[in-house]
């Protein structure tokens, strides 16, 4: 895998990353190129914010949409909404991510979900995690991050509070054995 193009992977925070915003973070990487990287956090929920309240902010009746919790997508632009979803739906400005999942941040996906005509599987998030050109590559050389496959089961079937550990186990790592510090031998 070429390090400049990590789209479609999960970025997992290692214990002791040093930034409380990313403690036990699970980030679905959606874009990574010569301009930088963008990912959507899927490991933490926004307190007291359900999908119906999000729809209400846009004047959309919830219709058939379940009132599921909304994820904290990241610290950048926390007022900006995103829907991470399966590839069975596409709309205005939908981005397919490495043939694994899609990302939409336009209101048409919200209307489609409310009408029962949206993607079969999805999750909503506010904000994103972003890195400038070369920043993520530099961070990956230090203790703090681990990359693994973004399997559909992890994205949509695994409960949010179990995703971090499940992603490590999927990669063959027992997260209980991870050390919060790095050393030199």
UniProtKB/TrEMBL annotation:
Short name of any one Pfam family annotated for the protein: DUF179
Gene Ontology cellular-component terms listed: cytosol
HAMAP family registered for this protein in UniProt: UPF0301 (MF_00758)
Protein family membership: Belongs to the UPF0301 (AlgH) family.
Name of the protein in question: UPF0301 protein GVO57_11720
